[in-house]
Amino acid sequence: MSDDYLQRIGGLIRTAREHKGKTQGQLAAALGTSQSAVNRMEKGQQNLTLEMVARIGEALDSEIVSIGYAGPMHLRVDGGRQLSGAIDVRTSKNAGVALLCASLLTTGRTTLRQVARIEEVYRILEVLASIGVKARWTNDGRDLELTPPARLDLDSMDEAAAKRTRSVLMLLGPLMHRAEQFRLPYAGGCDLGTRTVQPHLAALRQFGLEVAATDGSYHARVEAGVSPGRPIVLTERGDTVTENALMAAARHDGVTVIRNASPNYMVQDLCFFLEQLGVKIEGIGTTTLTVHGRPDITCDVDYAPAEDPVEAMSLLAAAVVTSSELTIRRVPIEFLEIELAVLEGMGLDHDRTPEYPARNGRTRLVDLTVRPSKLTAPIDRIHPMPFPGINIDNVPFFAVIAAAAHGTTQINDWVYDNRAIYLTDLTRLGADVTLLDPHRVLIQGPTRWRAAETVCPPALRPAVVMLLAMLAAEGTSVLRNVYVINRGYEDLAERLNSIGASIETFRDI
Ligand SMILES: CC(=O)N[C@H]1[C@@H](OP(=O)(O)OP(=O)(O)OC[C@H]2O[C@@H](n3ccc(=O)[nH]c3=O)[C@H](O)[C@@H]2O)O[C@H](CO)[C@@H](O)[C@@H]1O
Ligand SMILES: C=C(OP(=O)(O)O)C(=O)O
């Protein structure tokens, strides 16, 4: 683009931004870039890709730059290629969103290292920016710095962004320390059937948070001086409910015991983060957490969330389904070892290096090399459990692996109402999948995959499973509307291309 053209576009961006009443920092947070980059764009000193122009149009909802308004993103996959080489696992969506919410616990600055740059994180950042938190990507866009304002502007919360994710629910725990009353829009996210919020409300009620659900939002009111008189027993061993209880306990003046807590990976990351804030926690990695709260937290904090076990499982499944030898580096082994034990039983040939620590110094990582293997169906059904057990989000990947194995596998996704149903989409690519009931499928392998054109199912993991099957199917497949994948994976297409896949991204304009 010529300088003159860049300056004209820069001027249009500034006008549209000011018209929207957004600061450069808020636009930067929405784009996942730095405030200084937005400043350069507006001055015409930054080369702009069409993709960036499209995203700015979307972020500012602006007619002026609507030439590139970002339509839905799709993938075109040239399948049937083997993968090779090595790929690093990135940090997890689920720790990322919890830590963004947890940043509100301190009045100081929070630095999060190598946060996953994914749509789910962007939605929470939009919500945080709308209530006054300043977000800045530093260190070449790898790290995120969050500075809360002296007073949060909760009435200005970006409802549209909040409604696109369920993670926004995790603002309940931190916000109850910041405001006596607030409203939070009903959380959205993937279409996985009904997902209860009752365990969250029951746990937080014990700290004085009363929530009425009316007119599309939760009205929260905090009654001062209420304290859990005895251990909080969670009614479900859920991950985000445990995180909400932890964040409520972190600034509670006293010691809180949380029983039936989830010891899962994102909860552990949150515990390590809270420890950096000076909150003492006993029992990390177990189902009983004892939290020594600190009513006032004012320190700066610097934390590096750990790698994503579900991304590791996704990459492993990519290797299996394409019969490839692939090294997956930085695998948080504690959270994948049951899956690996089952896969070993199915005949998976793999090696792992000795363990080494993640950047947080706590999580144990290995590099995993997977080799082409003749797999047979497992004798027992595959079903998830709250940690420790096969991770609930890893179950869909067993579907595509079972399709590559000899014999019949039963998969029982008891957790979500809809997710097993989406696995029947694999039949479009040639798999033999029979739905027994809404929670159970039978998969008969091995599969002769064939290319197809289809829309993503409205759930993250089943959508990725479709993409992996397309990698295996010879010929050209098209996967439409991949926002749902971008919600949880950073640059997945580009990164798969770096190990031998051929995936092209395109958009409707
Ligand atoms: C942002 C985040 O961290 N999201 C994760 C988190 O969501 P989150 O913690 O929000 O999960 P939910 O509360 O929706 O729980 C998942 C489902 O499991 C059921 N359930 C859960 C625990 C239990 O002991 N009994 C029970 O029946 C719930 O009723 C629900 O239907 O945990 C889920 C389950 O690991 C994961 O799929 C999500 O990726
Ligand atoms: C169900 C999932 O996440 P969320 O809680 O963000 O919907 C997932 O990660 O597969």
From TrEMBL:
Database matches in NCBIfam families: PRK09369.1
Record's protein name: UDP-N-acetylglucosamine 1-carboxyvinyltransferase
Pathway linked to the protein: Cell wall biogenesis; peptidoglycan biosynthesis
An annotated GO cellular component: cytoplasm
GO MF terms held by the record: DNA binding; UDP-N-acetylglucosamine 1-carboxyvinyltransferase activity
GO biological-process terms attached to the record: cell division; cell wall organization; peptidoglycan biosynthetic process; regulation of cell shape
Classification via Pfam families: EPSP_synthase, HTH_3
Subcellular location: Cytoplasm
Family matches, as SUPFAM superfamilies: EPT/RTPC-like, lambda repressor-like DNA-binding domains
Protein family membership: Belongs to the EPSP synthase family. MurA subfamily.
Keywords per UniProt: Cell cycle, Cell division, Cell shape, Cell wall biogenesis/degradation, Cytoplasm, Peptidoglycan synthesis, Transferase
Function noted in UniProt: Cell wall formation. Adds enolpyruvyl to UDP-N-acetylglucosamine.
Enzymatic class: transferase
Keyword Cytoplasm applies: yes
Biological source species: Kitasatospora gansuensis
InterPro entries: Cro/C1-type_HTH, Enolpyruvate_Tfrase_dom, Enolpyruvate_Tfrase_sf, Lambda_DNA-bd_dom_sf, MurA_subfamily, RNA3'P_cycl/enolpyr_Trfase_a/b
Reactions that this protein is recorded to catalyse: phosphoenolpyruvate + UDP-N-acetyl-alpha-D-glucosamine = UDP-N-acetyl-3-O-(1-carboxyvinyl)-alpha-D-glucosamine + phosphate
EC number(s) on file: 2.5.1.7
